[in-house]
Amino acid sequence: MTHLANLIKLKANLTDEQAQLAAEAVMDHFKLKFPHILHAELDRVAEGGEFAIPCGRSSTTYAIRSKP
Fold first, then answer.
1. Is residue 43 within 8 Å of residue 28, measured between CB atoms?
2. Rounded distance, CA 51 to CA 49, Å?
3. Where would a tag sit more exposed on the chain, N or C end, judged by fewer CB atoms within 10 A?
């Protein structure tokens, strides 16, 4: 979650501790709203990675897109 905390710190001009608490609050909220199976993906994004789920038919990964 370091990546997310650093983004929050820079954008909101917060201390390290404040940014970490904010990042934890956001992640806790998202994990309440998203299915458990996606929690690892949320953690990956919070660390600066990509949000993608592997497709069972090949090694290609597809980003999840929300409906408009």
1. no
2. 7
3. C
Is 36 a residue whose pLDDT tops 80?
Answer: yes
| CA-angle at 35, arms to 31 and 21, nearest 5° | 5
pTM of the model: 0.71
Asked if residue 9 lies in contact with residue 16, where contact means CB atoms within 8 angstroms, the answer is yes
What are 4's two structure tokens? 């997310």
Q: Give Cα separations from 59 to 1, 3, 22, 26, 62 (angstroms).
A: 26, 27, 35, 31, 10
Checking if the pLDDT of 59 tops 50, the result is no
Classify each residue of 37-49 as buried b or exposed e, where b means 16 or more C-beta atoms within 10 Å of its C-beta.
ebeebbeebbeee
